[in-house]
């Protein structure tokens, strides 16, 4: 009897934190950004996804952390699946099973690890063998920042002009610089406004145009500081960018306030540590939790201090991580 080839694959991918943010979409359907962005993959924020296409399945089903997804959330996953089915010229139904190793809604961008793991597992399960560039483009269609989790380590998303020119490339491998990103989690519930909603409001800020003028220079400066491993300069630009991104959010119409009082308390602590000569710098994404960057040698000490700040529920220490990859152990 002939063995039937299995259309089933499993991928692992990591979330990422942006040094220079993607905020505002030039093309909302294709997730084309206004500006390039730069990020680091996070070793302790991981998604594993198994995808199987099977002619015997009667319907498409999607599960995240054991929960069956319906409505908008399911449609968002199926949008990427449909792109794969179209490319692979296949019509079979699919089963998607995904799990995160970090709490759902921990304010960690699970859409980046989720959609990059989905792009790799779904395209491979369909029999396609996509290049890194094609995978990054596919992941971007699910969630913009997901395109940056396809290459490993430190990554730049080149904004491009259209679907085929907007994708992420590696700037440096994960082992280039032994940085740590300690996430001080102060809120695990649902965000006040999702990043997808925030992107739509960004252009309504009177400062959005000014930001776009400032960004090319900032991108060059942070890249230079990064490549020279100038941590002080790197950190100063990281913070400048984090504040500016929040200014855009706070001056959008209607405004979005991502930072909470505990966010400011952690920022204060980070600044005090610097006065004492312990170098650390903060950034945030679309939420109140704080990502504190430091050098590996200081991570243990800083983590201990952060955990004691009132309101900090727990911390997650991340090293720079590799890009998305396939594994042979399936989730179902
Ligand atoms: C603030 O990629 O989550 O984290 O494309 O709508 O899924 P969608 O948005 P998303 O936006 C990320 C916003 C950010 C900045 C960044 O990661 O660059």
List keywords for this structure.
332 residues; 8 helices; binds ligand DP6; 14 strands; 8-stranded mixed sheet; single chain; 4-stranded antiparallel sheet; alpha+beta; globular
Structure commentary:
- The chain has 332 residues and is α+β, with helices and mostly antiparallel strands.
- It contains eight helices and 14 strands.
- Strands 1, 4, 5, 6, 7, 8, 9 and 14 form an eight-stranded mixed β-sheet that branches.
- The longest helix is centred in the middle third of the chain and has 20 residues.
- It starts with 7 loop residues before the first strand and ends in a 5-residue tail after the last strand.
- Ligand DP6 binds next to helix 4.
């Amino acid at each position: 009897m002939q063995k039937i080839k299995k259309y089933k694959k499993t991928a692992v991918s990591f979330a990422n934190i942006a040094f220079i943010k993607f905020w505002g979409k030039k093309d909302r359907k294709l997730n084309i950004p206004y500006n390039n962005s730069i990020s680091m993959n996070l070793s302790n924020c991981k998604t594993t996804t198994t995808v199987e296409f099977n002619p015997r399945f009667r319907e498409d089903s999607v599960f995240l952390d054991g929960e069956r997804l319906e409505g908008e959330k399911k449609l968002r996953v199926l949008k990427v699946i449909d792109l794969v089915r179209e490319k692979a010229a296949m019509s079979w139904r699919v089963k998607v099973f995904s799990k995160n190793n970090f709490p759902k809604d921990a304010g960690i961008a699970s859409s980046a690890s989720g959609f990059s793991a989905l792009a790799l597992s779904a395209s491979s399960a369909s029999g396609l063998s996509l290049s890194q560039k094609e995978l990054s483009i596919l992941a971007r269609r699910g969630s913009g920042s997901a395109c940056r989790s396809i290459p490993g380590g430190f990554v730049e998303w080149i904004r491009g002009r259209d679907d085929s020119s907007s994708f992420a490339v590696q700037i440096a491998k994960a082992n280039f610089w032994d940085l740590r990103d300690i996430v001080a989690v102060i809120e695990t519930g649902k965000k006040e406004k999702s990043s997808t909603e925030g992107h739509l409001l960004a252009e309504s800020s009177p400062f959005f145009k000014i930001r776009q003028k400032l960004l090319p220079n900032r991108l060059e400066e942070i890249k230079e500081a990064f490549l020279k491993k100038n941590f002080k300069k790197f950190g100063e630009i990281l913070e400048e960018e984090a504040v500016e991104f929040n200014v855009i959010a706070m001056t959008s119409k209607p405004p979005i306030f991502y930072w909470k009082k505990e966010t400011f308390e952690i920022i204060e602590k980070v600044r005090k540590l610097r006065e004492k000569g312990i170098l650390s710098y903060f950034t945030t994404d679309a939420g109140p939790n704080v990502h504190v960057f430091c050098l590996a040698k200081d991570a243990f000490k800083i983590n201990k201090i952060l955990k004691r700040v009132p309101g900090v529920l727990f911390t997650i220490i991340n090293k720079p991580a590799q890009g998305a990859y396939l594994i042979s152990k399936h989730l179902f």
